[in-house]
């Protein structure tokens, strides 16, 4: 053989570029020969590819686990937990009661769901008028609401307020009160005198009580004399004070009482000549309840409602220093009386003895309070104004 043939025999698998590729599929080609002659090498390649794929999967899983751990660390629960009222025990109990479901109470006792009880003995005979299927339908419709506040609102819309059908008429003065909600100087002196053991000290206290009562009697005597004097002409008697604040809104609910934000003020001036009371009503957003407001109302009333033939003016009010008993009011009265063209030549302002300050405008306030008790709900200031007009 030639060198070429020997080389070809020594290296039978070297590609010469001119190999014969048979068309018969039963005769193996070069690629099939390689696979048959080198099975271990092919298997190593497969193992290498599998190892690389396994390593890639492990790396991917490790990366995903690392990201998950980072997310856990990122959203880790802090020291101050976020409140979730829907998981509170009392809210769960409240919600299950509203849905007519059984629940576990605070004593860890199982409470069964609500069921209809025996028939009532009232004269309306409601249980006999409504059939059992209708009862269950009404209960299902009500408990399907599922919220206590919405259920209360639903029941409130079905309630109708009726007047008193029967009441006991009261005649005469009735029983005298023995309990009061305000401090009374007379009661204070009476209690001190009863507890005092020293005879001399007791005599002094009894004298103070008599003097206190005499001062109160003198004040009412002056009020009566001024009223009689006004009947002759040229004199007018004005009594003025603020009423107790009127709430907005006025709703029969304890929660609303402590959450209200607005008060309505009512200032009254009563004249002994006309026997009429004039009211000045405004809310706390408009003005306050100080001496400036009192001066403004008095000036408006005197210049517009006091008769032109009045030359002497008597004023009666309580001892509230922030409203009535202060320099601002005294200076206004002095200035008004001395300005040119003023027809009023004399103004007398008198104050009652503390604890004995019942004046004519208090009767007007009493009538307003009586009508106020009949008015269950008031939303707007205009409603209070209409109520005062009706009285």
UniProtKB/TrEMBL annotation:
Native organism: Psylliodes chrysocephalus
Residue ranges, annotated region (Disordered): 1-33
Name listed for the protein in its UniProt record: Uncharacterized protein
PANTHER family: DNA-DIRECTED RNA POLYMERASES I, II, AND III SUBUNIT RPABC2, PTHR10773:SF19
């Amino acid at each position: 053989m030639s060198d070429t043939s020997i080389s070809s025999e020594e290296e039978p698998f070297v590609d010469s570029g001119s190999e014969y590729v048979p068309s018969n599929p039963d005769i193996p080609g070069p690629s099939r020969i390689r696979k048959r002659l080198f099975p271990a090498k092919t298997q190593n390649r497969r193992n290498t590819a599998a190892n690389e794929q396994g390593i890639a999967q492990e790396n991917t899983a490790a990366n995903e686990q690392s990201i998950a751990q980072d997310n856990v660390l990122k959203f880790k629960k802090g020291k101050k937990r976020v409140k979730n009222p829907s998981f509170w025990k009392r809210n769960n109990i409240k919600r299950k009661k509203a849905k007519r479901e059984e629940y576990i109470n605070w004593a860890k006792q199982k409470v069964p769901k609500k069921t209809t009880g025996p028939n009532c003995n009232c004269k309306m005979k409601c249980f006999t008028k409504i059939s059992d299927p209708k009862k269950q339908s009404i209960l299902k419709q009500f408990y399907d609401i599922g919220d206590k506040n919405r259920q209360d609102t639903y029941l409130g819309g079905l309630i109708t307020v009726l007047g008193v059908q029967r009441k006991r008429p009261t005649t005469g003065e009735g029983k005298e009160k023995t309990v009061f909600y305000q401090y009374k100087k007379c009661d204070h002196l009476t209690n001190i005198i009863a507890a005092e053991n020293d005879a001399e000290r007791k005599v002094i206290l009894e004298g103070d009580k008599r003097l206190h009562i005499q001062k109160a009697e003198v004040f009412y005597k002056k009020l009566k004399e001024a009223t009689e004097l006004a009947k002759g002409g040229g004199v007018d008697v004005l009594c003025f004070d603020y009423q107790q604040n009127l709430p907005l809104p006025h709703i029969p609910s304890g929660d609303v009482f402590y959450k209200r934000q607005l008060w309505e003020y009512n200032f009254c001036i009563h004249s002994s000549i006309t026997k009429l009371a004039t009211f000045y009503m405004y809310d706390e957003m408009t003005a306050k309840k100080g001496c400036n407001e009192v001066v403004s109302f008095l000036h408006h009333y005197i210049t517009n409602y006091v008769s032109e033939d009045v030359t002497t003016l008597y004023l009666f009010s309580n001892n509230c220093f922030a409203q009535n008993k202060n320099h601002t009011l005294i200076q206004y009265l002095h200035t008004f009386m001395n300005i040119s063209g003023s027809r009023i030549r004399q103004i007398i302002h008198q104050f009652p003895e503390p604890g004995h300050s019942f004046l004519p405008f208090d009767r007007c306030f009493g009538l307003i309070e009586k009508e106020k008790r009949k008015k269950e709900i008031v939303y707007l200031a205009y409603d209070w104004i209409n109520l005062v007009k009706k009285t």
